[in-house]
Amino acid sequence: NCWPTVVDMRRSSAETKAVILAKARQRFGTAGFQAATIRAIAADAGVDPAMVMRYFGNKDQLFAAAAEFDLQ
């Protein structure tokens, strides 16, 4: 079984959102806000750009979520 099954490849919505957020942080950190695109972040996360929009709304909201952190 060298090929993963569809079931093996599925992520929960929480996992998908976490992956998108992690990739967005990386992309914003390396490319900056202006150069980072929803398409590039989606490609980094291995999802369709529509999924990024579904979970975060737009680039501004994604950036706000990516910039949010707990100081404790």
Strand content: under 5%
Order of helices and strands: HHHHH
Helix vs. strand class: mainly alpha
Q: Biggest sheet, open or closed, and with what strands and sense?
A: none
- Tally of separate helices: 5
Q: What overall geometry do the principal axes of the alpha carbons give?
A: globular
Gyration radius over CA: 13 Å
DSSP E strands, number: 0
Give start-end ranges of low-pLDDT stretches.
3-7
End-to-end separation in angstroms reads 44 Å
Mean pLDDT: 87
Helix content: over 70%
Note the topology:
Blueprint: H1 6-9, H2 13-35, H3 38-45, H4 49-56, H5 59-67
Helix pairs in contact: 2-3, 2-5, 3-4
Pick out its properties.
72 residues, single chain, disordered N terminus
Describe the structure.
The protein starts with 5 loop residues before the first helix and ends in a 5-residue tail after the last helix. 72% of the residues lie in helices and 0% in strands. The chain is mainly alpha-helical and 72 residues long. The protein contains 5 helices and no strands. The N terminus is likely disordered.
Quick synopsis:
It contains five helices and no strands. The protein is mainly alpha-helical and 72 residues long.
